[in-house]
Design a protein that fits this description.
- This protein is of the alpha+beta class.
- It has a single domain, classed as Trna Endonuclease, Chain: A, domain 1 (3-Layer(aba) Sandwich), CATH 3.40.1350.
- Helix content is 24%, strand content 27%.
- A 5-stranded mixed β-sheet has the order 1-2-3-4-5.
- Helix 1 packs antiparallel against helix 2.
- The N and C termini lie far apart (30 Å).
Protein backbone atom coordinates (compact mmCIF):
# COMPACT_ATOMS: atom_id res chain seq x y z
CA UNK A 1 0.00 0.00 0.00
CA UNK A 2 1.12 3.54 -0.72
CA UNK A 3 0.21 5.33 2.52
CA UNK A 4 1.75 8.38 4.10
CA UNK A 5 2.69 7.44 7.65
CA UNK A 6 5.45 9.96 8.42
CA UNK A 7 5.85 13.62 7.47
CA UNK A 8 9.52 12.95 6.71
CA UNK A 9 8.72 10.14 4.26
CA UNK A 10 9.78 10.62 0.65
CA UNK A 11 7.07 11.62 -1.80
CA UNK A 12 4.64 8.98 -2.95
CA UNK A 13 2.03 8.49 -5.65
CA UNK A 14 -1.61 8.46 -4.63
CA UNK A 15 -3.99 10.12 -2.23
CA UNK A 16 -2.29 12.17 0.48
CA UNK A 17 -5.06 11.97 3.06
CA UNK A 18 -8.52 10.51 3.65
CA UNK A 19 -10.45 11.88 6.60
CA UNK A 20 -13.73 10.78 8.13
CA UNK A 21 -15.94 12.69 10.55
CA UNK A 22 -19.40 11.08 10.89
CA UNK A 23 -20.81 14.40 12.15
CA UNK A 24 -19.15 16.51 9.45
CA UNK A 25 -20.54 17.62 6.16
CA UNK A 26 -19.26 16.10 4.07
CA UNK A 27 -18.29 13.20 6.33
CA UNK A 28 -15.51 12.06 3.96
CA UNK A 29 -12.73 14.42 2.83
CA UNK A 30 -10.06 13.38 0.33
CA UNK A 31 -6.97 15.59 0.52
CA UNK A 32 -4.06 16.31 -1.78
CA UNK A 33 -1.11 18.36 -0.55
CA UNK A 34 1.14 20.44 -2.79
CA UNK A 35 4.21 22.39 -1.78
CA UNK A 36 5.31 25.67 -3.30
CA UNK A 37 4.38 26.04 -6.96
CA UNK A 38 3.48 22.35 -7.54
CA UNK A 39 0.20 21.89 -9.38
CA UNK A 40 -2.34 19.12 -9.76
CA UNK A 41 -1.33 16.93 -12.67
CA UNK A 42 -3.12 15.25 -15.55
CA UNK A 43 -2.32 11.61 -16.31
CA UNK A 44 -1.24 10.50 -19.78
CA UNK A 45 -4.78 9.18 -20.39
CA UNK A 46 -6.23 12.64 -19.64
CA UNK A 47 -7.48 11.86 -16.12
CA UNK A 48 -7.04 14.93 -13.87
CA UNK A 49 -5.46 14.37 -10.47
CA UNK A 50 -8.15 14.51 -7.74
CA UNK A 51 -10.99 13.90 -10.21
CA UNK A 52 -13.57 11.33 -9.08
CA UNK A 53 -12.00 8.69 -11.38
CA UNK A 54 -8.48 9.43 -10.07
CA UNK A 55 -9.71 9.17 -6.47
CA UNK A 56 -11.73 5.98 -7.03
CA UNK A 57 -8.76 4.30 -8.75
CA UNK A 58 -6.54 4.98 -5.70
CA UNK A 59 -8.85 4.58 -2.71
CA UNK A 60 -8.20 0.90 -2.04
CA UNK A 61 -4.42 1.46 -1.83
CA UNK A 62 -4.99 4.36 0.55
CA UNK A 63 -7.60 3.03 2.97
CA UNK A 64 -8.13 -0.68 2.26
CA UNK A 65 -10.96 -2.56 0.57
CA UNK A 66 -13.90 -2.02 2.95
CA UNK A 67 -13.48 1.71 3.56
CA UNK A 68 -12.75 2.25 -0.14
CA UNK A 69 -15.99 0.44 -0.99
CA UNK A 70 -17.93 2.67 1.45
CA UNK A 71 -16.46 5.87 -0.03
CA UNK A 72 -16.99 4.70 -3.63
CA UNK A 73 -20.64 3.96 -2.84
CA UNK A 74 -21.02 7.48 -1.41
CA UNK A 75 -19.41 9.04 -4.49
CA UNK A 76 -21.89 7.16 -6.71
CA UNK A 77 -25.06 7.44 -4.61
CA UNK A 78 -24.61 10.72 -2.70
CA UNK A 79 -21.60 12.67 -3.92
CA UNK A 80 -22.33 15.46 -1.41
CA UNK A 81 -20.99 13.08 1.28
CA UNK A 82 -17.48 13.07 -0.21
CA UNK A 83 -15.46 16.25 -0.56
CA UNK A 84 -12.00 16.84 -1.92
CA UNK A 85 -9.51 19.55 -1.07
CA UNK A 86 -6.17 20.83 -2.25
CA UNK A 87 -3.89 21.81 0.63
CA UNK A 88 -1.17 24.14 -0.63
CA UNK A 89 1.81 24.81 1.63
CA UNK A 90 3.95 27.80 0.69
CA UNK A 91 7.72 27.90 1.32
CA UNK A 92 7.09 30.28 4.26
CA UNK A 93 4.72 27.74 5.85
CA UNK A 94 1.43 29.42 4.98
CA UNK A 95 -1.37 26.93 4.34
CA UNK A 96 -4.20 27.48 1.87
CA UNK A 97 -7.06 24.98 1.53
CA UNK A 98 -9.14 25.01 -1.66
CA UNK A 99 -12.25 22.94 -2.26
CA UNK A 100 -12.18 20.83 -5.42
CA UNK A 101 -15.07 19.43 -7.43
CA UNK A 102 -14.00 16.57 -9.70
CA UNK A 103 -10.43 17.84 -9.54
CA UNK A 104 -11.26 21.45 -10.40
CA UNK A 105 -10.53 24.30 -7.97
CA UNK A 106 -13.66 26.10 -6.75
Amino acid sequence: MDRVTDLDSPTHHGIDGVYYNPDGHPPYIIGEAKYGSSELSVLADGTPQMSDKWIIDRLENSVGDQIARNIKNEIISNSDNVGSVLVRISPDGEIDITQLINGIKQ
